[in-house]
Design a protein that fits this description.
heterodimer, A: alpha+beta, FAD/NAD(P)-binding domain, 2 domains, eight-stranded mixed beta sheet, 11 helices, 29% helix, B: alpha+beta, Arc Repressor Mutant, subunit A, two-stranded antiparallel ribbon, 8 helices, 10 strands, binds iron/sulfur cluster
């Protein structure tokens, strides 16, 4: 392990790696990633990897769209096939308030060049006959939304990072950050000390801990979220079917179906360690009960695996992306509140711009940590759960 | 313990071993199923009613060895490949073990094969005396192997001896991942079992790593010089055997 670095990144998930790669591309020589376990241990290795532009806040839509541009062209840009499957998110709406909200969201999306639209019940029935439309008022659809294979994306970054000279240290935990005179001087790990003036907190559900190391109380709280996967079956639905808390999609070419549901009864924790990411029977029952309601054909399919991960929730369900005036050299890309995988490409790019050029091609000043102190929250209406 | 290591412990095995007097009478099933999971094809497939009907779908199978005729119908029914037929009366020195076999190609009758134990370690050699693979078995063949008598409680799988190459040796049969792919990934720096699992999908298929785990660990251990015990194991993720959605959720409201 190097004992001196230009930038030390805490966390080897999608955000740590995308940031490291973009820094290296911008010519930063000595970038070191410290990952507490293996590559893919965090939420990135446990997520659904849905990618969409259907959000509610203009800024989120803008970021999601910019990230989608990378997702859709990943192969051309970097040479890796990440199994991007654009089948659209079919967002079923059951409630008049939601319908109004999404009508407005679609207007904002369209004004930002996202080609989403509303589908009437008859259209849903015709295009997606396996979806039970009982109680459905309408659905939104954006054909460019879809999903990717999260491991393919993550390991593409791992290989690109290694190739670009980024040092990735697995099983290396950052235990403290030393400062002197309002500046970072080094990072302490269980494998030794690394001298550096710049640290990026990409610790996902552990971000709070890495904030405390420099005296910041980041309001990032992990919440357990689980998923199941079924045996592979013949490909029959191309889109992500989503009700809000519940979602399902079929992976291509593999054919297995992935499903999840957000359960409001899951508590927010201070730390991933107290959350214990274990699968529960409670979740299995809940997710499957909705499954047979929304898509009755699923009842004959067998579930082969279940797992748990964590969302990294903030009070407004939005990320913290940027630096802090109190401590130059300390940056954060965390608190993505369960929709952070898809933003990896753009967040990594913008943060690298901020660190190297001190300005960014999309204005992210509102994503700062200070908004919680100032009370300027920017709640995102389009979150799942 | 099975739940921790993927390999049943000697205590677990002793519990399901048919009695010596029953073994002396001829072929009998040995049901090495130790995890309470919602699964019952063994009970429903047995024509002799030797595996008691399950009161609860999560029950462990209970075999009445006196009723069991050793017909082997249950062997290919079990999705966990947990049932074996033991015949200690085959000859003076040899016993026959009938085992479920899902690799391809199938072994040839009369061929000499390497016999492995529950952990995938070679413990001796045996001779294939019969291979049954009909439609009903849904690709789970039943291979009968004559082994030295002292291996009747050890021999639980076979390795075909042939000119195997890394390309044609499949480490993970569910996801069809070859030894070559595993070696290449390790050479690229994926030296953690969890990373290999995520990168290549080894151990993510319906068998949940029962067959490939040991093989990948051995490869990793050879490449990194770590002992198999030192390599960080991947989490066993329930359900360890497939469950039909309606078993958990009912049939929904739609008729
Ligand atoms: C079930 C589920 C479904 C999801 N579905 C989607 C989806 O469809 N679309 C989407 O966009 N997002 C989704 N998400 C959210 C997404 O997974 C996360 O927002 C995203 O992966 C966060 O990436 P990250 O790099 O910030 O964090 P992580 O991937 O969690 O990485 C953080 C890493 O930091 C390491 N670390 C922590 N502390 C330290 C330390 N002190 N020293 C060294 N290393 C440390 C951890 O080990 C971890 O590997 C989902 C999440 C879950 C759980
Ligand atoms: S071997 Fe035949 S009789 Fe014995 S338990 Fe299996 S199916 Fe039943
Ligand atoms: S795994 Fe095999 S032995 Fe166990 S209950 Fe299922 S069919 Fe029976």
């Amino acid at each position: 392990m190097k004992n001196k670095a230009d930038v030390v990144i805490v966390g080897g998930g999608i955000h740590g790696q995308a940031t490291a790669f973009n820094l290296a591309q911008k010519g930063v020589k000595n970038v070191v990633i410290c990952e507490h376990k293996y590559i893919g241990y965090g939420a990135t290795g446990r997520c659904a990897a849905g990618v969409r532009e259907q959000f509610g806040l203009p800024l989120t839509i803008q970021l999601a769209k910019a990230s989608m541009d990378v997702t859709a062209n990943f192969k051309e840009l970097y040479g890796y096939d990440i199994e991007y499957t654009p089948g659209g998110y079919l967002w079923l709406l059951y409630d008049h308030r939601d319908l109004e909200l999404w009508r407005r969201n679609i207007q904002i999306q369209n004004s930002l060049d996202v080609k989403s639209f509303l589908l009437r019940v008859e259209e849903i029935r015709e295009r997606y006959p396996y979806v039970n439309v009982n109680g459905v008022l309408a659905a939104t659809m954006n054909p460019r939304d879809g999903y990717v294979n999260p491991f393919k994306v993550l390991y593409a970054y791992t290989e690109m990072c290694r190739h670009a000279g980024v040092e990735i240290n697995t099983y290396t935990t950052v235990t403290d950050i030393k400062t002197k005179g309002g500046k970072i001087i080094s990072v302490l790990t269980d494998k030794g000390e690394i001298e550096t003036n710049t640290v990026v907190n990409c610790a996902g559900g552990f971000a709070r801990r890495v904030g405390k190391m420099v005296g910041l109380d980041l309001p990032v709280k992990p919440q357990r979220h689980e998923m199941i996967v079924t045996e592979p079956v013949e490909l029959f639905f191309p889109c992500m079917v989503i009700t809000g808390p519940w979602y399902a999609f079929q992976t291509k070419p593999h054919g297995s179906i992935l499903m999840g549901i957000s359960l409001p009864e899951e508590p927010l924790f201070d730390d991933v360690d107290s959350l214990q990411p274990q699968s529960t029977w409670h979740f299995l029952e809940k997710v499957l009960k909705v499954a047979v309601e929304i898509m009755p054909v699923l009842r004959n399919v067998a579930v082969i695996r279940q797992w748990a991960g964590w969302y990294e929730m903030t009070p407004d369900a939005q990320q913290i992306l940027g630096g802090v005036p109190e401590l130059p050299g300390y940056y954060m890309s965390c608190g993505y509140s369960g929709h952070g995988f898809q933003l990896g490409h753009i967040a990594g790019k913008l943060l690298a711009e901020l660190i190297v050029d001190s300005e960014t091609s999309i204005d992210i000043s509102k994503c700062d940590y200070g908004r919680f102190v100032r009370g300027e929250l920017m709640p995102e209406p389009g979150v799942i759960g | 313990m099975l739940i921790k290591t993927g390999i049943p412990s000697p205590e677990e095995i002793v519990k399901v071993k048919p009695g010596q007097s029953r073994l002396a009478k001829g072929p009998v099933a040995m049901v090495e199923c130790f995890q309470r999971i919602p699964c019952n094809p063994c009970a429903t497939s047995c024509p002799a009613g030797a595996i008691e009907p399950f009161k609860n779908i999560n029950d462990l199978p209970k075999l009445n060895t006196e009723k069991c005729t050793g017909c082997s119908a249950c062997v290919s029914s079990c999705p966990g490949l947990a049932i074996f037929i033991i015949d200690e009366t085959y000859s003076d020195k040899e016993a026959v073990v009938k085992m479920p076999y899902e690799y391809r190609p199938l072994p040839e009758v009369k061929s000499v094969v390497e016999v492995t134990n529950r952990a995938g370690k070679v413990v001796g050699t045996g001779v294939v005396i019969q291979v049954v693979n009909n439609k009903k078995q849904d690709k789970t063949a039943v291979v009968s192997v004559a082994v030295p008598k002292e291996l009747s409680m050890e021999a639980r799988s076979i390795q075909i001896r042939k000119e195997s190459t890394p390309e044609n040796t499949f480490i993970c049969r569910c996801e069809e991942i070859s030894l070559q792919e595993v070696r290449e990934a390790i050479a690229k720096g994926y030296t953690d079992f969890n990373e290999l699992k995520r990168k290549l999908r080894v151990g993510m298929g319906p068998c949940q790593g029962l067959t490939c785990r040991q093989l990948v660990l051995t490869e990793l251990s050879m490449a990194t010089g770590q002992l198999v015990e030192e390599i960080n194991l991947t989490t066993f993720r329930p359900p360890t055997k497939p469950i039909k959605i309606s078993v958990v959720a009912g049939d929904g409201n739609e008729k």
